[in-house]
Every structure is written in structure tokens, then in C-alpha cells.
Amino acid sequence: MIFGRRSPILALAVLTIAGGALRLWQLGAASLWLDEAASVQFAGLPWSVLWLSGYDNAPPLYYSLLKLVLRFGDGEAVIRLPSVLFGVLTIPVIYWAGRLIAGPRAGLTAALYLTLSAAHVEYSQEARGYSLLVFALSIALVGLLLLLTQRRFTRSAAATRPVRQPEVAGLVLYASGILAALYTNNIAVIFVFIAQLAFVYHWVMRARCDRTLAAHWLLTNGLVFLLWLPWLHVVLTQLLGDGSMAWLAQPSATKAARIWSHVVGFGYIGLGRPWFNLALCLLFLYGAFRLRRQPSVALLLLCVAILGPFLVWLVGLLHPLYMDRTIIWSLLGSALLAGAGIDAMQGWKVTALILAMAVLATSSVVTYHATGAAENSDWRTGYAAWQRGLASDASAQAAIFCSPPAVLPILYYARHRTALPPLLAWGAGAHGEGTALILDRSMTGADPGRRDWLAQAPHDLFLWKRGAADARKKLLPALPEQARWRQPVWDRLDVTFAHAPSPIRSSLKAALDQAGWRPRESMRFNGKEIVSYACTGDGCQLPGHVGPAVSPP
Fold this sequence. Notes:
alpha+beta
């Protein structure tokens, strides 16, 4: 037997160390991508802005923790360390949850499942709040399981004595975990809804409608709601469609199922993957069946693993939210169901299943690292090429990008420069003439499953493509000439001044004024002045002398 019953703590320690090693491996190899660079920028905001302003859809807890980490360094690996820490800490928590529902072997199997999950490794290596979200929800899940498994009633009224200590511990863990999750990502609202479903079922069917338990549950949720109330307006704004995620398309039901199987299954295995994932789904259902004597627990885990992602997809019919990152927390339910299913088996079947799961999951993790899947967009190489372009043209006055967010990775990699030209980014509509905000890689014969930002200089159009070590490969000669050389027309322009000398600022502002641009609003972001310009006519062009000649070496 792989997991002996005599030393579960030792086995858990081994899994935790292995999980840490997998998540630390090549931690700083990939460059920061757009969202990670945004995390760094947000973490640099003052505390008053961080907690009292709706600067981003994501709540401020992760950014606050990252702000503390930035005091010790700002390299890629350092920035990603908080995600690694929360990813590793989730492993013993999921063991605790599995032990509560089915014993040590189920807990160790669930911990193994999470340790070798390529999706969890991926988001434990990303400087975003998803690893913290999973960790916080795992704490809340343990609290719920304490409530659903430790409270004992008998038919005798005199013997109806609840076990108070697990109840208090469960409520405290649930409240702290769910509050941390709500202040990490708004998607945690879905988990709150699932928790209410599971508790109501337990209260009616198992707890005999105990009024004391209901009062404690309502009081706990009321306290969580009051503490979360200051951020409620951001969630409502997002759900009502403020356009902040207009770039995300709602996937079809079939594609959504594939994304879900990528998250909970072996996402980076190619050959035979559908059959592997089908076998996993059967294992989940078998685990739920084996928990039939704890129906509220089985209901909770099925809801976390399956209903939660489905609800995210349903919400997406009004406001698209469905991505692998927004359903990553469904791993908690699937890991526990797999653990319960394997724990119910006997003899060689247990060993065979655990070994098969370990081999397939390890293969998925190895493929994830070997293919460089962590590299979303190679901004490090792109910035190096852009910097060489600046050095080759001393008269360059500005850098031009095709979308305001594309400036953020450049600001990160230029953070140690004492002088930086103004950065211009246009904000024309997605179908505006000559804007070409995003290109599919299929246009260049590369992986069509990923997208990269474009950067446009006055002479050439570049694609900063993942894994292209040679800057010459970033040129797009395959683009139609009319798309490559057309003079674009814009209706909005955001200009970021970061350490730019005053003469260059004055020269640029005068050139923009002459071209018909007028300042619309101005703000300071992390010590950098950002001016938003509006066109006074039907469409304005950039002055021909503004912008560096960025050419490959």
C-alpha cells in the first residue's frame, strides 16, 4: 500500500516538500506578462488608494500582501513567491479536509492530487491572486466540513447534544476563509452561494432544523457580509457590465467543458487525454457515491467541483467570466472526491489507481515546464529589443503601443532606468481603422490558442511572441501591406510620463496639441503621470516625428 496508515504526517510532509519544489522550479524563468505587471503596479499604490478606491475589479488583499513582499525585492521570482507560498500551504489544508470526510488515506490522496495538478502549479507560479483564492477557499471548505461532519444528533431529545467545539472552530474557519477569498477575487461569491446550499440541506435533513445552529450560521454570514460590504459596489459594477472585461468571449458549453477538464484533469497531456479525463469524472462520481452516508458532504463537494464552474459559465451569459483561472478553485472539490473514491477501494486497485494518477499528473507537470507554458507573453525579450531600438536612435521622443495596458510590462522592465521616454498608447475601438489591438497567432502560423500584444512603431509592426529568442522573428512580414503600413487614426490616447525629461514632455505635448489632441483628464499612478487625450475632430493622427525607430538588431 502506497500510503500507510501508520505515518500519514510523514507522507504529508513529503508531499508538501515535493509540492514546494514543483512550484519553485523555474519560478523566475518566464517574463512577467500583462496581468502580473498590473499586479506590481497596483501593489505600488498608497494604502489609502489600495483599500478605498475601485481601481481594479479584483479586491485589494492580494495586492496588499504583494506590497509587503516588494520591500524585499522586485524580481520575477520574488514577486511570485507569495503565490508559491499559498499554493504549498493549500496541500496540508486539503489533507485536513480529506481526513475529515474519509480518513488519512483519503486526505493523502487528495493532497497528492493537488500536489501534482499542473493547473495548480501554473497558478502557484503566477503573480496574481488565484493561488491565494484557492488557499482561502480551502480554509473555508474545512470550516464547512467541520460543521457538516462533527455535529451529532440522536433520536432521543435528551441526547441531542451538539459538539460545540468543532462548531465554533468550523464557523471561525469558514468566516475567515470566505472573507479572505471575497477580498481576493469576486468569484468567491459563487462559493458563498454553494455553501448556503450545502448548509441548508444539512440543516434540514441532518440537523433537524436546529435553531441554535441556524442562528450561529446566520450571524456568521451576516458578519462576513458587513465586513465585505465596502467592496460590494465593485462586484455590482462588474456584473452590470462596465466593459472592463469586454475582451473576454463567452465560451460554448463544449469549450467550457474542455476548459474545466483542463483545470481538474491532466491538462498538458495530449494523446488520450479525453479518456483520462473521463476516467477522472467517473472517479469523482464514485467518490460522491461512497460518501452517500454523508449526503451533505457529497453535495458540497459535487457543487464545488461541478456546479461552481457551471454557475460561473451561466453568469457569463450576462457578463463573460469563464476562464481556467476563474474556476481553478473547483480543484478542491475534485481532489477530495478523488480521495474519497480511492479510499473506498481495497487491495491492488488502490495502489494501481494512485500510481496511474501520479504518473499521468507528473507527465502533465513535466510537459507544462518543458513547453514553457508559463510564458504567456515574452515582454522581457520585447523590452530588450525595444531598448536597443531606443539606443540606436538618439532623437526618439516617445514609444507607441497599441493598447494602454501594454505599457505596464514595459514600465516594470524599465523600473531601474533613470530616464524613460513618454509611452503612448491609443484607445480606439476594437474595429477602428488600423488599430489591430490583438492578433491571433494563427495569422503567423504559430499556436492559435494564445494571443499577444502588438507594438507599433512608425516604421515596423512587431509581435512579441513567446519563446522567440531572436528579435528578428518578431517581425510580421506575413501581414497584408495595407494593415502593416496604413496610417492609423485614433479617437483616444493615453500618455504615460515616467522619468521623462521636461523638454521632451513639453515638446510632445506641443506636438499633440498641434495635431488636434486636447487633455481630457490627468492622474498619477505609482508616481507616474498619465494624461488621457481626446481628439477634437473626427479622428486624429500622431505627429510623424513622435516615436522611436524600433528595429531589430
